Every structure is written in structure tokens, then in C-alpha cells.
Amino acid sequence: MSTTALAADALVGRQAPEVAPSPSGTPRRRPRIAGTTTEPLPVRGCSGEVLGRRAADVRRATAGSTRVRRQAVAEVEAPALRLTRRGRMLLTAISVVVFGSAIVVLGLRVTGVLVPGPDFSHTVPVQVAPGQTLWSIAQDTNPTQDPATVVEKIADLNKLASPADVVPGQTLQIPIAR
């Protein structure tokens, strides 16, 4: 016999549910089961002190008129915040992203990628001699700096498309680092 047939046989002798008035005055359907009383159901283990509320306060809050009930419920302490599994996973992911970013930035700083370039305080005019390149000029004028950075700065200051645009006799403005 199927479960549908068993359920139908179990319901054959039952009466239709009675309509009980609700506190707001509108009728509400409430099933009546033979052999039961109207006593309140026992409090389950997941309510009361476990949720941060005292069981007596909850009972007091639900008794009486609607206005008194609202005031009593407002006086009952709210339960402590509890993270779900999804919330813990999200918090972990955000923490990993934040700390990972900090490690990457610090690592780049240590390796010198994010170190600010040299601070050029002034420029001096230099006339290009035969056989000189921007690289050799950069090494002669700024021996403590990276020649690649100085060559790039010379090209920017003198509006050179490439380092090969230098001709002997040309006067260039050369930046000097502090």
C-alpha cells in the first residue's frame, strides 16, 4: 500500500478543523486533534537561556495585551550574534584578501619595486660629445643612481622619442639627483 493511501486511511475518521478567533479578532483556522488539551507545549532545548533570554521573561512577554507584549519583548535582551557557516567563510575570505594584499605590498616594498625613484633637485646643461650615449652621460652625471632611471628622465626632459635621437654637439638638460 502506498504512503498516500495510508495517510488517507488515517484521516478518514477525523473531523474538520475548527475555527478559533485570533487575538486580533479575525478568525484563524486551528486544527483540533482528539485527545489533546490546550496546555502550552514544553519549552524546547534550543530556547530560553541558550538564546540569551530567560524563559520567564519570554512567557511574561507573550502574556497580556499587545501593547504590554511589545514592551516586554523590547525589554528582553537580544541573543548574541552568531555566525553561520557562510558568514565564517566570508569573514575568512575577506581576512585572507586583506592580509594577502598587505604581504604582497610589503614584499614589493622590500624587493625595491615600490621604492620611490630618485629625487632630482635641479638640471644642468650638457653638450653631447662624439661617441657619448645617454647611458654614459647618466653614469657620469649621477654615479650613485640607476642609469636606466636617469636615461628615462633625460629623455622625458628633452622630449626625445628614443635614446638614439642624440647627436654630437646637441645640448641636453640633465637632471641631477640629491
What report would you give on this structure?
- The structure is a single chain.
- The chain has 178 residues and is of the alpha+beta class.
- It has helices at 3-10, 55-62, 66-75, 85-111, 134-141, 147-157; strands spanning 18-21, 27-30, 120-127, 171-177.
- A two-stranded antiparallel ribbon has the order 1-2. The chain has a two-stranded antiparallel sheet with strand order 3-4.
- The radius of gyration is 42 Å and the shape is rod-shaped.
- The protein starts with a helix and ends with a strand.
- 6% of the residues are buried.
Largest sheet: 2 strands, antiparallel
Q: List low-confidence stretches.
A: none
Strand order of the largest sheet: 1-2
* Beta-strand fraction estimate: 5-15%
Shape: rod-shaped
Give the H and E element order: HEEHHHEHHE
Mean pLDDT: 74
**How large is the radius of gyration?**
42 Å
Measured distance between first and last alpha carbons: 96 Å
Strand tally is 4
DSSP helical segment count: 6
Structural class: alpha+beta
Structure described in brief:
This protein has 178 residues and is an alpha+beta fold.
Write the layout of secondary structure elements.
Layout: H1 3-10, E1 18-21, E2 27-30, H2 55-62, H3 66-75, H4 85-111, E3 120-127, H5 134-141, H6 147-157, E4 171-177
Antiparallel strand pairs: 1-2, 3-4
Give keywords.
178 residues, alpha+beta, 40% helix, 13% strand
